[in-house]
Amino acid sequence: MSAHDHDHGHDHDHGSELSEMQLRVRALETILTEKGYVDPAALDAIVETYETKIGPRNGARVVAKAWTDPAFKRALLDDASKAIGTLGHVSRVGDHLIAVENTPQRHNMIVCTLCSCYPWEMLGLPPIWYKAAPYRSRAVKDPRGVLADFGVALPQETEIRVWDSTAETRFLVLPMRPPGTEGWSEEQLADIVTRDSMIGTGLPKVQP
What we know:
48% of the residues lie in helices and 12% in strands. By secondary structure, it is mostly helical. The protein has one domain: Nitrile Hydratase, Chain A, CATH 3.90.330.10. The longest helix has 29 residues, at 40-68.
């Protein structure tokens, strides 16, 4: 399978459904807020927590296990949906998750060129920039430039491969384990795995 092989012939029907759902949620939120049932600040805090902590934490644990368990890593790269299912994480019906491994020779980056297909069960809510047209178009045309915008500088000899998500197929980047983390526990390793490193627009963050 090569980059951009995925057929978008399904027309991303789920995209319109998501938009309709967002409108309904916004309307419901407005009504409940006006009636005093919902504190907007508390709601924002919940969304922020899910976006930056709870969701990405699932993916971070998967990455940490792959770094420490060679058998699980092989299973993850062979069939990510099945491997992650053994950990108790279940994707939506019809979703197929593929894990792609970063190496010194190849860096993987994920995009959805037509809307915003995203493995939210592993990464939480998609960041705003992931859904924005500039990222969706530039990630394909100038991936090295996009990475530079995110502060990621790769050696010129490193190939950058862009994977295009669809409604049926999502991707998870398995970043390279940083040097100096030998002997770390899975919990310690999960703490340095960022959401962006699992999209391919960032790297694991090791504290200096």
